[in-house]
Amino acid sequence: MRKTILSTLILVLLLVTNTMYSQINKSNQKVIDKIKKYLIASEKNGLNGAVLIAKGNDILLNEGYGMANKEQQIKNTPQTVFKVGSVTKQFTAAAILKLEEQGKLKVEDFITKYFKDVPEDKKTINIHQLLTHTAGFVHDIGETDFDNIPTDEYFRRALTSKLLFKAGLKHEYTNVGYSLLARIIELASGQTYEAYLRENLFKPAGMYYTGYVLPNWSNLSIANGYIYNVINKGTSLDIHKKEGMVSWCLKGNGGIHSTQNDMYKWYQALISGKVLSKKSIEKLTKPYVLEYEGETSYYAYGWAIFKTVRGTKTVTHDGSDGTFFYDFRWFPEENITILYATNSYTRSNGEIPWIVDKMLFDVDYTPKEIKADFMTALFEFTKKFNGNQSDLTREVKSKFSKQLTSPSYLNRLSSIYARNNRMDIALPMAELNTILFPKNDNIWDTMGEIYYKNSYIDKAIKAYQKAINLNPKNTNAIAMVKKLQEKN
C-alpha cells in the first residue's frame, strides 16, 4: 500500500509551485490554527483519526478526530491505539541496527548464517538486501495477514519461492523480506521479535503502548476499523489474542499498534540518540536504492527518502490494510515531524498528511475541504436500506446512476459485503453490476464467486464461463469452472 500511495503523490507534491514557506516555530500559531480549522472541518466528510505535528521537543498540534468506536461513541484521542501498518518496517530495521551495535550481527551477513538449506539462488542474499527490498522475494506468502503457517513451513515456502530477479539488481517492495528480518532478529537475539523490540527499542524510548500483544492497553481505547467509514471490521488485536500469536505473514512487516503519543516518543528517540547511535541513524535513513524507475524517491532501511520542494530531506513511510492508514513524516533538516493515523481510510482522507505538510510549510496555501467519499455514501445507503433485494437494486440504480461510471464501485461494494457475510446486499449489487457493465470479465468473475458462496453452483459456472468468454486468460475463472464441474 505504501508504494501505491507514495508513488502517486510524490510527483504532485514536487510539482507544487515553490512559493513562500513559513518558518515553523512554536509561536507561529496562525499556521497551526489554520490546520486545526481544516482538520475539524474535515471530520464531517469522513475524517476519523489523529494528527500530531511537532518541532523537536515542542508539540504544535496533537488532536484526535472522529470516532474510535462509533457504536459506543468513543472519540479518537492522542492515546487511541491505531494500527501503524507497514510503518512497522522501520521498527524492524531499527532492531537490526541495534543488534549490529550489540555485535550480534552485521548487515553484510548472508542469510545462510541464520537459515538452513538455503537454495543456491539465495545463498548470496544478505541482510542489507532484505532491508532495502533488493533481495527479489515475492510480495507475500499466505492468503491473509492472519494465516497461521507454522514457523518452519513459512520460511521453507519463502526460501523455496522463485525470486522475481537476481538479488541486488533492483528494488521491489516485499513483506516477505521483512518477515525474514523478523526471524533473523529472533535467531540473533534469542528472544521473540516483539520481546526484543519491547526491551531494546520501546522501553528505552518510553513507549509502553506499542506492540502486537505485549502492551497493557486495558485503560486505552483501541480504534475499530471502519471500511469506507461504515462497516465495522473491529481490530486485529482480537485475532492475535484469540490465536495467541502473530502470524509470520504479518510479523516484522506490518500490524504493530501504537498511539500518537508513543509514536512521538519514537521520533524523539530517533533525533536524540536515545535508542540508536548517530552512525546507525545515518545507516537507517541513507537513500540506498531508487524505488521506482523514473521517479525521485529512494529506499533506505524501512524508510523512503526524497527531497521536498524546499530542497530538504524527507524521511517517511506509510502503511495500510485498506481500512487503517498511518503516515510518518520526518523532516530532519527542519526538525519537524507529522504523524497521521486513521481508522477509516478513503482516498480523500489518505491525502490529509500531504495537505497538512503543504499547509505547514506554505503560509499562502489554503486547501479545499476533503470530499465526502462516494463509496462511503454507497455503503451508508445500502447498509441502512429497508426493503427487498429488487427494491434495493432499483433504488441504487436510480439514486447513484450518475456516479456509477466504473464497474469498480459495485464490484468493491459487493465483494466487501460478501466477505462480511451480507449476501442479501452482495448478491443484488453484483447482479446489478453485470447489467451495467456486461462486457467486463472481472465483474463476472466476482459474480461467479458470490453465486458460489450462496451455493448457486449452476449460476456460478455460467458466470465464470461468461468471464472466460470475455477474457480467455482469466485464470481464476478457468480454475473455478474446472473445480465446480468436478464437484457437480
From TrEMBL:
* Keyword Secreted annotated: no
**Molecular function terms, GO-annotated:** hydrolase activity
Asked if Acetylation is a keyword of the record, the answer is no
Protein name from the UniProt record? Serine hydrolase
Family matches, as SUPFAM superfamilies:
beta-lactamase/transpeptidase-like (SSF56601), TPR-like (SSF48452)
Instruction: Give the PROSITE patterns listed for this entry.
Output: TPR, TPR_REGION
SMART domains, from UniProt?
A: TPR (SM00028)
